[in-house]
Write a structure and sequence with these properties.
With 230 residues, the chain is mainly β. The two termini are 37 Å apart. An eight-stranded antiparallel beta barrel has the order 5-6-7-8-9-10-11-15. The radius of gyration is 23 Å and the shape is elongated.
């Protein structure tokens, strides 16, 4: 053949039997051009709006907490992706010790930056690392707690209604994203989530933090569907 053709492999992503076929594209390199081709993407390379579908799916399979989340992301030079995300989370949990935790629906938000290592690629697939700051202010009812007072020789249940918490955390993540059809993309990210402020009250700790997950977990996962504008 006169020209060498590079066929990019099809990447498959899956979560709970969901699979994504990646868009394959052929890049032609002439004999005269032996250097790596560089692609000059514009400063503003579009906006992506997305919906995280991981939590709704996991809640449908019995997870006791979760939320609904949207994200808006700006593509700069196909390399830097500043983003903001927001959503509502809630929880209902009964522990092995029989106390009941009900986290009321509450707002959470994140702001951060993603970096695409495949910024010089002609193929619309992304290898991403990111850093985000998350925060939430929320309330919870903690009921059916038990106590045992040895001095008075008494015991029984008690309740902590309407406990107010404020939590902050960081998210350090990595993942991939692929184009599946025209302006439609799908991708996943894994996150390490160190807590900056747990948000304890005088009487209780939060079992669930909207946007963060179950307290003490420290890790998170999302699977997001994106639509690119324009």
């Amino acid at each position: 053949m006169k020209n060498r053709r590079i066929l990019h492999s099809i990447i498959k992503l899956s979560l709970l039997c969901l699979t994504v076929g990646a868009h394959a594209q052929t890049v032609v390199v002439t004999k005269a051009d032996t250097t790596k081709q560089r692609h000059n993407y514009p400063l503003f390379n579009g906006v992506m709006v997305g919906v995280n579908i991981a939590d709704p799916i996991l809640r449908a399979f019995g997870q006791e907490y979760g939320g609904y989340e949207g994200v808006v992301e700006v593509n700069l030079h196909n390399r830097f992706f500043p983003e903001i995300s927001f959503g509502i989370g809630s929880a209902k949990h009964t522990s092995e010790r029989d106390f009941h935790y009900e986290g009321k629906p509450a707002f959470f938000g994140r702001i951060g930056m993603n970096y695409n290592f495949r910024y010089n690629s002609d193929v619309p697939n992304y290898l991403i690392v990111g850093l985000r700051y998350g925060f939430s202010s929320y309330r919870a009812d903690i009921t059916n707690l038990s106590y045992n007072n040895g001095y008075w020789d008494s015991s029984g249940p008690y309740n902590l209604p309407d406990q107010k918490f404020n939590s902050h955390w960081l998210e350090i993540g990595a993942g991939i994203r692929v184009k599946v059809f025209k302006k439609l993309y799908m991708g996943w990210m894994l996150y390490f989530k160190p807590l900056l402020k747990e948000g304890n009250t005088k009487f209780a700790n939060p079992w669930y933090i909207p946007g963060y997950g179950a307290n003490g977990k420290g890790f998170g996962f999302n699977y997001t569907i994106y639509y690119k504008i324009p």
